[in-house]
Design goal:
With about 425 residues, the chain is α/β, with parallel strands linked by helices. The chain has 16 helices and 14 strands. It has helices at about 10-20, 30-45, 45-55, 70-75, 85-100, 145-155, 175-185, 195-205, 220-230, 255-265, 280-295, 300-310, 320-330, 360-365, 405-420, 425-435; strands at about 5, 110, 115-125, 125-130, 160-165, 190, 215, 235, 245-250, 270-275, 310-315, 335, 355, 395-400.
Length: about 425
């Protein structure tokens, strides 16, 4: 059996739940060491290190002049994609753009009667780095990653968006990626992947500009590199393997549940597919469906490994308990396939994205719905959010005092400053009050 269902109250179920609540993990020490060495090489040797790593791992005959995607490559890409792709791409762009337009924040100021002015200035960062994984050597271009990272940055007002992506063995980039990038206004694209691409964005090289924010998914080396440069630049998040939690009652379709679990499982052997259902019959039917549907997948070996090693099916006493479990797990993707799903929405406190009802597969959110698919994993949805326009902005406080305002607050400021032993702080106010 691929997955053996367990009751949430059984010893096995309790052990599974305990593991799910404590699943945050960083890369092991060996990966950390490898990434640290790569970052040092990129910081010290710039483009030369990028070329060296690219030749070693991705494109053996890669030349320095290939590092930046040329204008000719950008132009040629349009002749290598078909009309159905362009139609799907444009619809996705429109929907993602429309959703993220609502996230924009405005600067504001408040003026008080005594002349005190306070406020907040909202501004975009100047340069954003967008990392797009290679996708099986360019065979499966992750177009959605281009859109989900690039569009919010554009809406935020970022002047310069720099895209890094892994070249194929022949040094090319899949034309679908190049077209998607151009359709949202990105033309500065470099051919480099993994930790060395992140290092180039963080430190800058002779060719690649240093950026202020780095976003985008990747393997453990990319994630660890982002972690190590965090603080020098802003990153979107520390992401783990993709995950879905499905809450289902007796009205759910077992075939749909199994299909959605497999949609997560095919990502990665470490992907986490979870089901919590109130129906033991549904649980058993899902196991049957998983076995049958697996045989129809192109990536069945990956999905099978994922389900056997990390797949979870739990049987809850009732939906109230199931919702409590959902909050404890704080999953990246949460599907609620129950009768009257909107009635249960107020019960959900922690989830990256919530998919309501039997006709809302997680894959709709990955490509077309509009909300961002870059989401917190490993339980971090307890305190973090999806990538959005706010990822690419920064906020400065605005403060202006009139003489009257400083007079009104001056004694209080001095009182607190002196209490903290910061007499120079107090004196900077006292001098102004004396010289008024």
């Amino acid at each position: 059996m691929i997955i053996t269902p367990a009751a949430t109250t059984s010893p096995e179920g309790k052990t599974i739940l305990a593991g799910l609540q404590d699943r945050f993990q960083l890369a092991d020490s060996k990966v950390q060491e490898i990434v640290s060495d790569i970052l040092d090489a990129v910081r010290d040797r710039g483009d030369a290190a990028l070329i060296e790593y690219t030749q070693k791992f991705d494109s053996p005959d890669f030349k320095p002049e290939q590092l930046k995607v040329s204008d000719q490559e950008l132009a040629d890409a349009y002749g290598l994609v078909d009309l159905p792709f362009m139609e799907a791409l444009q619809l996705a762009i429109d929907r993602i753009r429309n959703f993220h337009e609502r996230e924009k924040e405005q600067s504001w100021m408040v003026t008080e009667e005594n002349g005190t002015i306070t406020g907040r200035l909202v501004q975009p960062v100047e340069v954003a780095g967008l990392y797009v994984p290679g996708g099986q050597g360019g065979k499966t271009p992750l177009v959605s990653s281009v859109l989900m990272n690039g569009l919010p940055a554009a809406i935020a007002g970022v002047e310069r968006r720099v895209m890094m992506t892994v070249p194929s063995a022949d040094g090319s980039i899949n034309p679908a990626l190049l077209v998607a990038a151009q359709e949202i206004g990105i033309t500065e694209i470099y051919k480099a992947g993994s930790a060395w691409a992140i290092g180039a964005l963080a430190f800058g090289t002779e060719s690649v500009p240093k950026v202020d924010v780095i976003v985008g998914p990747g393997n453990q080396f990319v994630t660890e590199a982002k972690r190590q440069v965090s603080g020098r630049v802003k990153i979107d998040m520390i992401a783990g393997p993709s995950e879905v939690l499905i809450i289902a009652d007796q009205t759910a379709n077992p075939a749909h549940i199994a299909a959605d679990m497999l949609a997560q499982a095919e990502h990665d052997p470490q992907a986490l597919s979870m089901l919590v259902t109130t129906s033991e019959e549904i649980a058993q039917q899902v196991v049957t469906e998983l076995t049958e549907q697996l045989e129809q997948l192109n990536r069945q070996d990956i999905a099978r490994t994922s389900l056997r090693q990390r797949g979870v099916i739990l049987i809850a006493d009732n939906l109230h308990q199931a919702m409590e479990i959902a909050n404890q797990i704080a999953a990246e993707h949460l599907e609620i396939i129950v009768e009257n799903p909107f009635n249960w929405l107020p019960k959900i406190k922690h989830a990256g994205a919530i998919f309501l009802g039997p006709h809302t597969p997680e894959s709709a959110g990955d490509y077309m719905a509009g909300p961002n698919h870059v989401l917190p994993t490993m339980g971090t949805a307890r305190f973090s959010s999806a990538l959005g326009v706010e990822t690419f902005i920064k906020k400065s406080s605005i403060i202006s005092y009139s003489a009257e305002a400083l007079q009104a607050h001056g004694e209080h400021i001095q009182q607190l400053a002196n209490l903290e032993g910061l007499t120079a702080h107090a004196r900077s106010v006292a001098l102004r009050l004396r010289n008024k």
